[in-house]
Amino acid sequence: MELSLTSGKKITCSTDTSILEALKLAGIYLTSSCGGKGTCGKCKVIVKSGRVDSRSKIKLTQDEVGKGYVLACRTFPSEDVLIDIPKESMLVVEGKVVTGKSKDLQALLSSTGAEIKPLTERTVLQLPPPTLDDNISDLERLKRELFSKGMACLRVPFRFMPDLAKTVRKKNWEITLSTIHTDDCDEIIRITSGDKKTPQYGAAIDIGTTTVVVFLIDLSSGELIDVASTYNSQIRFGDDVINRIVHATEHGKLKELSDTVISDINNLLSIIRKNHHIDVETIDCVVAAGNTTMTQMVLGLDPGAIREEPYIPTANAFPLAFAGEIGIKVNPNIPVYAFPCVASYVGGDIVAGVLATQLYKKEELSIFIDIGTNGEIVIGNSEWLVAAACSAGPCFEGSGIKCGMRATEGAIEDVKINRETFEVEIQVIGDADTKPTGICGSGMIDAIAEMFLTGIIDQKGKLQKDVSGRVRAGENGLEFVVYSGEGRDIVLAESDIENIVRAKAAIYAGFSTLLMEVGFTFNDIQKIYIAGGFGKFLDIEKAIMLGMLPELPKEKFEYMGNTSVTGAYLCLLSRKLRSEAEEIAKKMTYLELSVSHSFMNEYVSGLFIPHTNIDAFPGVKKLMTK
Ligand code: FES
Questions:
Q1: Mapping DSSP to helix (H, G, I), strand (E, B) and coil, where does residue 213 land?
Q2: Kind and range of the H or E element at 532?
Q3: How far apart are the C-alpha atoms of 456 and 464, rounded to whole Å?
Q4: Distance from the alpha carbon of residue 57 to the mean position of ligand 1, in angstroms
Q5: How far apart, in whole angstroms, are the C-alpha atoms of residue 166 and residue 158?
Q6: Looking at residue 93, what is its pLDDT?
Q7: Which atom of ligand 1 is nearest to the CA of 33?
Q8: Phi then psi dihedrals of residue 421, to 5 deg
Q9: Domains assigned to the chain
Q10: Ligand 1 atom closest to residue 39's alpha carbon, by position in its atom list
């Protein structure tokens, strides 16, 4: 049976394969933030003709039903079907943000003073052909040539021996060796005939609980070729790491969880490769950063002990793995470097973040916060580093928010509300004519801060019906219409606002409790580095107004974007920074906040906008009384 798209493409499908799966098999990826569970509503397609069996779990609006919308993950074709995929359902590949981003990354790399020395290096050798006088073996010939070039120690794994004779002779004794440098020696990971020095690429990966981001990097220049990101499909096994650990251990599904996230990585890599016509054999190494559970799952390690007292991971520093061992679809012999972790609840993503900020080299006292699914905070300087985690939840990444989405094309990232007319002005990620398809973390923070200032919500985050004319009754209670126009309305429901207020309270409580525990106050802090998937920018003033960040001078804050993938980028390109990352992981100590009374007290006080203790926010107080 055939699934046709309005774009003209035709796909063979069957009655027991969902439209989402059939599209995926054909290389067409839809946003599926619940991982195909049927609860997020992000995978909508329009059935133009043909009968389908639709088993939707969530209620679609009358208008959507009338137009033929169905959830692709819950719909199975019963006969030949023609569908249209709305733009907002397509998985976004962020090729457009690359230009500026590449320059920023390259500037950051050079500011560290590290030279480009990728995890994998390529060397072209012209071996002298053997003669009756020079009749040493092929392997000795190869080693002799390398020793003459200064490579003192070389390990050649046996797997390269069967083809060695053929490979060295194929292009007149010219070969390219790919090697990795381990503690004491260089090891061959690939031998090819001829000069294959360039192009040489590497992948830097952030394995988040909610999202997976892949950077493809030119290893000779450090240039960022492209970025692709998606929701982590493991979400269908649970939103947080605990549920996923339970699924992996109690249901014996570790392999399923590992395969799921590896398949996300493979899909993203394949999208970038196809877009840029990049041969898979030119990818030479992979560096991945993630929290401890995600790292273990990618490597296929049982995470069970992370959840049980005394909360022990299998390893904090991982031996190098190879792509073929974990299922990444590149040459099976290429190395996969997993960022070192600190403890069960402070992972490689945080080490990568500290590396990206370089705060461990500075005398001044700084704070680093990564607002992802969990919300991890590090405080310290060149002498010491202490980390803690506060459960903020994935709402700023769009998960659990009715119209929430990641900071990709179509996301509302900036919101202003006119004080008199309550007209809403929005800024959308993309071209000038890009229509909004949802709202991302920075848009949510802006919207709620503005709604608070204009009296549309009260200090508890409750929507006020009669203030703006933009509050209406939705399927699950009141909602504020951020945008209404072409396509679907973008709203913030009261339950979304509650979610965001809880998340911001957890973040602020994390800050204040950690500072208290180490004996400092906000005034001792010289710099606050903020990481998270907020897109190009985060409006610091609005985040202060919401009570998510402390009220400090604006110049003390620096928004760094996704530092997990930035750290992976740095380690992909520099041997020196890889050892610095390992030092950071060893140096950092972990403080458990969830058992602290002050954390709970601080959290409850933070469930108001901006905070119960309004005197901690004098600037916001002034604005409120205007
Ligand atoms: Fe289909 Fe979430 S509803 S992927």
A1: strand
A2: strand 527-532
A3: 5
A4: 9
A5: 15
A6: 54
A7: 2
A8: -95, -15
A9: 2-90 (3.10.20.30), 119-193 (3.10.20.880), 205-348 (3.30.420.480), 361-394+500-624 (3.30.420.40), 395-494 (no CATH)
A10: 3
CA atoms within 13 A on the CB side of 36: 17
How many angstroms is it from 345 CA to the middle of ligand 1? 29
> What sign results for the dihedral spanned by CA atoms 43, 44, 48, 54?
positive
Give residue 96's pLDDT: 47
Q: Which of 28, 34, 58 to mutate to test the pocket of ligand 1 (most atoms within 8 A of CB)?
A: 34
- Provide the pLDDT for residue 474: 83
50 alpha carbon to ligand 1 midpoint, in Å? 21
- Structure-token match 């020395």, residue found: 117
Structural contact between residues 614 and 551, judged by C-beta atoms closer than 8 angstroms: no
User: Residues of the chain whose pLDDT is less than 70?
Assistant: 33, 91-99, 486-487, 535, 626
Q: Which atom of ligand 1 is nearest to the CA of 74?
A: 1
Beta bridge partners of 527: 366
Query: 360, 208, 371, 213: which is closest to 292 by C-alpha?
Result: 208
Amino acid in the structure at residue 97: V
Question: Distance, CA 487 to ligand 1 centroid (Å)?
Answer: 19
Distance 33 CA to ligand 1 centre (A): 6
pLDDT in tens, 580-613: 999 999 999 999 887 788 999 999 999 999 999 9
* Cα gap 158→83, rounded to integer Å: 52
Tell how far the Cα of 17 is from the centroid of ligand 1, in angstroms.
Answer: 14
Q: What one-letter code names the amino acid at 489?
A: D
CB 125 within 8 A of CB 179: no
**Residue 597 CA: distances (Å) to CA of 394, 569, 592:** 24, 39, 11
Pocket of ligand 1 (CB under 6 A): 32, 34, 36-43, 71, 73
Nearest CA, atom 3, ligand 1: 38
Ligand 1 atom nearest 31 alpha carbon? 4
- DSSP letter (8 states) at residue 226: E
Task: Give residue 621 CA to ligand 1 midpoint distance, Å.
Answer: 42
Question: What atom in ligand 1 is closest to the CA of residue 37?
Answer: 2
Judge contact between 214 and 269, C-beta under 8 A. yes
Which tokens go with 187?
A: 């090891």
Contact 455, 467 (CB under 8 A): yes
Q: What is the pLDDT of residues 267-279, one digit of tens each?
A: 899 989 998 999 9
Counting beta carbons within 10 angstroms of the beta carbon of residue 595, is it exposed (0 to 12), middle (13 to 18) or buried (19 or more)?
exposed
pLDDT of residue 349: 97
Cα 336 from Cα 119, distance rounded (Å): 9
DSSP 54: E
For residue 98, the model assigns a pLDDT of 54
